[in-house]
Amino acid sequence: MSHPEDALGLNAVDNGDDDGASSPGGEVDKKNPNELELPLFMSLRKLNLFRDDESPTSTSATPSMNAAPKVPPIHGSVTGPEFLLACGGGGQSRGYTDKKTKGTIKLIISNLGGLKTKVTSSFHNIANLPWRLAAKTETSKRTNGIRFFSIYIDCNPESESTLWSCEAVVEFALIAQRPCGSDFTRTFTNTFSYNSNNWGFPSFIEFSDITNADKGFIRNDKVVVEAHIVVNNVVGVSRTSVFDFQSNNCPMSDGILLVEGAPLYISKQYLALHSPVFEAMFYSSFIERDKREIPIEDVIYEEFLELLHVLYPSRKPVTAENVEYLLELADKYQIQFVMDQCESFLQNTEDVNIVTKLVWADQYTLSRLQHVCIRALHQPCDVKALRATEEFRKLSDSTRSALLEKLLKILE
């Protein structure tokens, strides 16, 4: 028996070894996989008697060969970065099958020619589980000595619990850099768990196909990879409540905000509790108080909707993609909770550079963020690097003075 994933290079897990060998395609299928007792397989796997790329776990994969030649029958797996979350659902439980949760993680590799080691994204929350995308190149026995670009996805890899699992469909996409080009995609389905938390394609696409400018995947030595993830059938993990602001089915919604002409159904009391601006709008003598539909001016619909998802108990995370406009909206409507969430994210992320953080710290008076940024400067060259940026001109005299004092302390 042969499996479709063997022909697609799927049955593999990234073990970080570029020279690790794997069995030839179909080698592990000479015996019926059903003859393997599952408890015995689990025990042997923990003893490392099965290599990850020989796992008989059932997985399906479907390639789309729109923009690259067919990949030869080789085993494989993968990784990558940045993320946008779109959730649906409601309520809390220790497992759920009724709703799907979708998320996208994007990885930008700016120096593909110099890619020597694996690059990964930070962890991003999808369906209340941490996911990470990673990418590297591999030339090994399992790629028949051919250099391939490899992509993998990690799901909850740091958990030591065996009680969780989730079914997910993952589509990896190498994004075309030309308007007329087509993305190169490959898809698989896997049940992620303690024993299967890393999956992907070591032979995603030949490296020479990416670096070939005629293929349209590379521009200025930069490539973009995305992972589109659909999660369902989650076990052992609580589901976070998610609110549908675009539907009038929630009995707790008692107000309608019109943003760019589209309605958003909200709770006046909840917004007023977090924002003195909305409190005045809903409960003072303003003319909006008696309106059934209240227009919200000078905001973008998608950005305001994101603000609501961060503010409500769904607690959508702040990311490098949404932090800038969340700061602006939180300041505009005086929502301290969202402002605090943004500041906390910026203190801990490396996805936003220090000078940008200092500019925002100035703009929104974020003293803790300014403190963390200045403490991160350890060498004179660190301060000089800030001065060489365009954004340095936007810094206040107070922040420039603090940087000068830091430089003098370093030189002492």
Automatic annotation (TrEMBL):
In this chain, the stretch annotated as Disordered covers 1-34
Instruction: Quote the protein name from its UniProt record.
Output: BTB domain-containing protein
Highest taxon in the source lineage: Eukaryota
Q: Which SMART domains match?
A: BTB, MATH
Q: Where is the MATH domain?
A: 102-229
- Looking at the record, the residues that make up the BTB domain are 253-320
The protein's matches in Pfam families, at most eight in alphabetical order, are given as:
BTB (PF00651), MATH (PF00917)
